[in-house]
Amino acid sequence: MTAPADSVQDDTIAANLAAVRARIAAAARAAGRDPASVTLVAVSKTHGAEAVAAALAAGQTVFGENRVQEARAKFPALRAAHPELRLHLIGPLQTNKVREAMALADVIETLDRPKLAEAIAGERDRSGRCPDLLVQVNVGREPQKAGIDPGLAEAFVEDCRGRLGLPVRGLMCIPPVDEDPAPHFAWLAECARKLGLAELSMGMSGDFETAITHGATLVRLGSAIFGPRHAPAPFTLA
Ligand SMILES: *Cc1c(COP(=O)(O)O)cnc(C)c1O
């Protein structure tokens, strides 16, 4: 008897998770860090609710989605069954989706412009709640990519935290694909240190060990866990 296709896939997801957890722990120890100081965000975009359920069954609780619409379709039912689940929004956010994004997400990693900060603050005032926020920095100054300009990042964070009273916990970046990510990770870590921010979301399937060496507290891994995406990634051209 052969196993049904979905249980084969479940086994693969569990094995992939075990492998990346081991690599995260090894990279943390090599950098003299506690492996528990690095949180794995499993990026489930383009993969169905059954893939998320398989990861939950393998002990994964933190997930990342880049589109509000897709998160809305997948997560409310999973959350009802798994109250421990935490959802991070990691894709560019339009101001007209702020209300829904804030209702769905535990963390929004992509605060990157004053207009969005104002919209989030307005919705916080209306609803009385606000997810934790990370400020996304466009470390490679790529015109097609989301994120605030590195030269404006410090003033923007100060304005969000001070005038708007937003819960900014850290910084996030996606370095240019064709460059060594290490200097970008180092820059982001230094910026967070200067600002007294604890969280650093950096590192994807191809570069998370380098990111951990430079202090990442959140690594966002998709393909290393779930395999190739089912559709072209509908996010900033990374
Ligand atoms: C898709 C995505 C990831 C995961 O990418 P992989 O290379 O599949 O690990 C990480 N961060 C963001 C912002 C993404 O959109």
From TrEMBL:
Disulfide bond recorded as keyword: no
Domain Alanine racemase N-terminal: 16-228
Keyword annotations: Pyridoxal phosphate
Record flagged with keyword Translocase: no
Residues found modified as N6-(pyridoxal phosphate)lysine: 45
Entry GO MF terms: pyridoxal phosphate binding
Family according to the record: Belongs to the pyridoxal phosphate-binding protein YggS/PROSC family.
HAMAP family: PLP_homeostasis (MF_02087)
Protein task: Pyridoxal 5'-phosphate (PLP)-binding protein, which is involved in PLP homeostasis.
Stated name of the protein: Pyridoxal phosphate homeostasis protein
Lineage of the species this protein comes from: Bacteria, Pseudomonadati, Pseudomonadota, Alphaproteobacteria, Acetobacterales
